[in-house]
Amino acid sequence: MLGDWTNTLVIVLLLGAIEGLTEFLPVSSTGHLILAADLCGFDALFGDEQAKTFEIVIQLGAILAVVAAYPHRFRQLLRVRDGTGFTGWRGLWLLFLTTVPAGIAGLLAHRVIKDVLFQPLTVAMGLALGGMWILAIERWPVGVRRRGLDSLGWRDALAVGLFQCLALWPGMSRSSSTIVGGMMLGIERRTAAEYSFFAAVPLLTAACSYELYKNRATLSADHAPWLAIGFVVSFLVAWFAVRGFVRFLGRHTLTAFGWYRVVVATFAALRSLCV
């Protein structure tokens, strides 16, 4: 058994919930997991390599939640012969264009990113910059030129993909970068959020599969129950978060998320500097 059973369970539930809640909100799931793991001593409890594997597994749970939340849309994407709007080969092509830039950048800069940017202070900086970006776009909005997923074209998809590269900096947030980047392109806020959900699936699935394969030697039967619990919690919380976030955007802006990021960044930076 890994340490105290009750303590481990609480931490696993907490991190699974944090991942599920923050993966698709513009607040940075990676940043929150790094800060939360640092606060609760998760790496010391699980071991560095096992902790990384756990984080990959719960992220897969959150990704699967998008498929469960939008089953009709994903079925339409699998009808490859269709080629209108965000369906079939055209929808897959748009997702491919969005995925490629961050995929290439991630492969080229993977080691530097892991060694330099995965630190509480750099996460705090990313949270703060992303928060100010949100506040700026909501304060000086760009006119809406695209409304609905079916209105998006290849230029929109590629540009959103370039913005997605900013998410390689932990704390900037993949969701925030794609949503706010989309809004800068003139994509309506709710449409940008929904496209961000779909864009997460191929990129994060590929990244998680690669990391899981690379860390396969760290998997053991002792960790299986914790991985399963974290996966399920992340999936359930992410499903509710995705549905709730879309309803929220029907009536509100992203301003609250911008201020939240600035506040969290301030506390994280102060703690990092004082330790």
How does this structure look, described?
The protein is mostly helical. Helix content is 76%, strand content 0%. The chain contains twelve helices and no strands. It has helices at 5-22, 29-40, 42-46, 48-69, 71-78, 88-117, 120-139, 154-164, 174-184, 189-214, 224-249, 255-274. The chain starts with a helix and ends with a helix. The model has no long low-confidence stretch (mean pLDDT 88).
Write the layout of secondary structure elements.
Layout: H1 5-22, H2 29-40, H3 42-46, H4 48-69, H5 71-78, H6 88-117, H7 120-139, H8 154-164, H9 174-184, H10 189-214, H11 224-249, H12 255-274
Helix pairs in contact: 1-2, 1-4, 1-11, 2-7, 4-10, 4-11, 6-8, 6-10, 7-9, 7-12, 8-9, 9-10
Distance between the termini: 30 Å
Net shape: globular
Q: Classify the helix fraction into a percent range.
A: over 70%
Mean pLDDT: 88
Rg measurement, Å = 18 Å
* Percent strand: under 5%
Q: Output the structural class.
A: mainly alpha
What is the N-to-C succession of helices and strands? HHHHHHHHHHHH
Low-confidence stretches: none
How many alpha or pi helices?
12
Q: Count of DSSP E strands?
A: 0
Largest sheet: none
Tell me briefly what this model is.
76% of the residues lie in helices and 0% in strands.
Characteristic key phrases:
single chain, mainly alpha, 275 residues
